[in-house]
Amino acid sequence: MTGFLRGSATAMITPFTGDGVDFESFGEMIEFQIAGGTDALVVLGTTGEPATMSETERSETIKYAIEKAKGRTKIIVGAGSNCTAHAVEAAKRAEALGADGVLAVTPYYNKCTQAGLAEYYRQICGAVGIPVIAYNVPSRTGVNLTPETAEKLAAIDNLAGIKEASGNMAQVLDIMRRTRGKIDIYSGEDALNLPILCAGGSAVISVVSNLAPRAVKTLTEAVFAGDLCAANKLADALFPLAQACFSEVNPIPVKEGMNLLGFRAGTPRAPLTPLEEGHRALLLGEMKKFGLEVKA
Predict the structure, then answer these.
(1) Which long-range contacts (CB under 8 A, 24 or more apart) does 222-227 make?
(2) pLDDT single digits (tens) 230-239
(3) Which residues belong to the active site?
(4) Could you give all domains of the chain from N- to C-terminal order, each with its CATH number?
(5) Model confidence over 177-220: pLDDT tens digits?
(6) How would DSSP label each residue in 76-128?
(7) 216 — phi, psi (to 5°)?
(8) What is the spatial distance between Cα 80 and Cα 160, in angstroms, rounded to a whole number?
(9) Which of 20, 48, 46 has the alpha carbon at shortest distance from 258?
(10) Is the model's pTM score more than 0.90?
(11) How many CA atoms lie within 13 A of 135 on its CB side?
């Protein structure tokens, strides 16, 4: 299927306190995103640290996001796992709670075959009626969703698209060539947002848009309008900020970035650690250069 998502989506962080999720702060972040024109919020994706959250916390976070958004923006829920049965149950729970779609990362650690990947997505898609986005990020999972497998997945009715974060632009182009008009391709890597959009990508699922939602949304609009001069100018400005957001493993830097903007983002949960001081100085400097109103 095509047409589920167009424009910008933000891979949301999850703010924590010592006792659990800081829903008041999370609500402020959701309003910030909606005010910035973001077309969808991805909740409990990698950036949201779901691996360190309890089942109760996950369900409460999904419910809160859906109720807070009140239909003003799409809510897409992370539902991947290295256990297919768990991924299926997570997708069914997201649908039952009212999610607009689910984002299912490829199974990690198990290092399944391409046939295993295809079956994994067939089972998830077959268990729900809402759109499913496959998420390919081999640097984290240890498995790559190949263009050949992507072509097979494109035949699944409610497979809405692929979030591509392999960092391999040649692979992205091959996937697009094989699936064009059948499913959509989304950029899952901020450094490649511009080229993926220019090649026919329909949306970006962005980390840096936690900090600069309006700028990322404007970038997508410029590309869709054919104004590549404006798109290049904005991409050039965003690039150093995006690089600073990945100076350490995501979401360590962007979480500190949200603190610097004045939100109560807290710190990542162990085994992740707070941003190192040198990287914090780098991030702060890039945020100021971009013109963000920092509170530090």
Answers:
(1) 223/194, 223/197, 223/198, 224/6, 224/197
(2) 999 999 999 9
(3) 135, 163
(4) 7-217 (3.20.20.70)
(5) 999 999 999 999 999 999 999 999 999 999 999 999 999 999 99
(6) EEE---SSHHHHHHHHHHHHHHT-SEEEEEPP-SS---HHHHHHHHHHHHHH-
(7) -65, -40
(8) 15
(9) 48
(10) yes
(11) 32
